[in-house]
Predict the structure.
Amino acid sequence: MKIIVAADENWAIGKDGGLLWHLPEDMKFFRETTTGNVVVMGRKTLDSFPGGKPLKNRVNLVLTKNPDFHREGVLTAGSVKEALERLREYGQKEVFVIGGGDIYRELLPYCDTAYVTRVYRSYEADTFFPDLDASEQWELCEAGEKREHEGLCYAFTCYRRKKA
Ligand SMILES: NC(=O)c1ccc[n+]([C@@H]2O[C@H](COP(=O)([O-])OP(=O)(O)OC[C@H]3O[C@@H](n4cnc5c(N)ncnc54)[C@H](OP(=O)(O)O)[C@@H]3O)[C@@H](O)[C@H]2O)c1
């Protein structure tokens, strides 16, 4: 399983149920990387999408503890264990964990690669991704060139789990 996330200098990823920036190239990278594959997310991240609708052309698996939760085009799992079981049915597709904070934290141990769009600014936030630079288990393997959009610097980076 792989993670895809956009995080600021302090690994902030969200505030008040939404994102912290608008980066069209990052949206494009996200769309191109995940389309045709499986995306795994928390119920709050699903609710942050327009109309609370799932992402098109992808299998959407949503974690929720609410057994009555149903939404068109969405598969659900009531626990990490159930999510991992459901994902076995999609063995031939790539699986991307797409957030938010709870789900990244809970599924990080099952992931080997993290695509991190690093935004070089510091935002006020209430949701964070684990600091991979401080982790002994992860290493930066690709630090993409710095890009800029309307004065905001960012880069596409990639971290991999260190081999035991
Ligand atoms: N920058 C980025 O790349 C990025 C990506 C995605 C999201 N975000 C941001 O992250 C924020 C949302 O993150 P969040 O941490 O608040 O919420 P979240 O991780 O999206 O969803 C949390 C919800 O998932 C369900 N859940 C969590 N653990 C579970 C488990 N073990 N079993 C079953 N269900 C479980 C619960 O749903 P129920 O309450 O229904 O039980 C919980 O309330 C937003 O601000 C969003 O914009 C940022």
